[in-house]
Each structure stands twice: as structure tokens, then as C-alpha cells.
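For the sake of transparency, this paper describes our internal protein records without simplification. An entry from our holdings is shown next, in its original layout:
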Amino acid sequence: MKKSLARLVAATALAALSSAAWAGISNTKHNLTSTGPGPNNTSSTDQICVFCHTPHGADTSASVPLWNKDLPTNTYQTYADLNTSSLDGEILPVGSVSLACLSCHDGTQAMDNIINAPGSGGYDVTGGGAGGLAFTWTSGADTLTGSPIPNLGTDLRNDHPIGIEYCGGGLSGTSTTVSGTCDDLDFKTTEVQTKEVNTRQVFWVDTSVGTAGVREKTDIALYTRTFAGGDGPSVECASCHDPHVETKGTDNVHFMRVTLAGSEICLSCHVK
């Protein structure tokens, strides 16, 4: 009897966790099905996750779990092209973590460009090409519409730098120890944490919104890339944005890891 009760409690807890996780993405604009709250919806499938992820046949060139879209091959203008005097970190070409976001948000490729479409026999390594799979969209368009600025285009000079060394470079790590000194002292250093995952160093800025010293969704994610000085933490789209969450704070801005209220998202990294 006790074992049965324990199993029932465990099953109930798992169901609650699953429901909470599913409710998170289903209530955001990244739910592109007819049940989604955003302006871009399709009646061609009721699968929410399929627009980004697939359990089989994923694009292995993307540093994103089980990615289900064709990564864009566009040439982007980046913040480096501005030649601003305040830029003191190396900027690499747009990498796959940010390309995953731009596969919808640069507006050059259909939202229904899906490698492994719902149902049997829907695999297409090109995802249907730039035109996608010809789903039916209530917005009347197969590229992102609505606001604020979901369609960034390929000119990224007026957006936060991506593929850029955190704090101008100077940081590296081994095991759980961050080494070096930030080249730009207008950035937070002591809050940067690291650990080794599958022999690869990962970095993050600990915002202490959750548990200090533990990498969580409410921390600023830094992605390890190889710069001229070696492997180090890079700022990417997903550093500030979590595509699976609802709004944080009272500013009603979607997909932020930290609230914008009081410029908290900016002050998580910048010393001002």
C-alpha cells in the first residue's frame, strides 16, 4: 500500500512538472499553433515544439538541442561594422546559437522551414527551403509579424552585439575556476561562473535571482567560442533571451532571462 501511494505521489508530481513546463511555452508567442497568443499562428499542425526541435533527424551543425530548422547562410552586418571607439572585444561571425534564433528572426526564411515535419514521411533536410512547407498562417504571412521588432533583418548593427567576447576578453576557465581579468573593467567579473561539461568549459553571469553558484535560466548565459586568444565566453542572442519563458517583471517584455525593470538585465553584466 505504501509503495502504491509513493508511486501515485511521484506520478502526480511528474505530471504537475510536465504540465507547468508545457504551459510555459504554450502561453508564449513561440507557440505558433492555433492555440498560441501571438499574431503568427497556423492551423496546419497542433505541435508546439516542432517549429524548433525534433527527436529525430536534427541539424547537427547547430549548437542547439535537436534543432529542426535549416540554419541561414546569410551574410550579416554586425556591430563590428560600426567601428565604434567603445568596442574592445573581438566579434566572431554569427554562430549557430544565434543563427538558430535568426532562422526565424532575420525574416529571410519561412517560419515553417522544418526539417522533420509532423507526421510520417515529412523529413526534408532543406526544411522546404526559404519558402518552407506552405503551412496556412492566420497572419497571412509566413515570416514574423507583430511587435516589438520580431523581424531583425540581416543588418544587426542596431542590435546588441552577438558573437562578442564578454568584457572585451581576458577570461578563461578550468574546472570550476574562472581565470584572467576582464580587459574592459566596465563589466562584472566576480559574478562570472564556470564549470566543465563534457570536457568543455561553460560560462555564465550569476544574477543570484535563483541559487547562487548554480547555472539557472535566470542567469546570463555565455557561450564558449574560440577567439584569437583561445576559448572564452561569448555573448549570443540566448545570453539574454530564453525562448521558453513568459514575461518577467512588470515591463511585459517576452523571453527575457532577467527583468528590464530598473535596467536590471543591463546591470547584470555592465558596471554603470
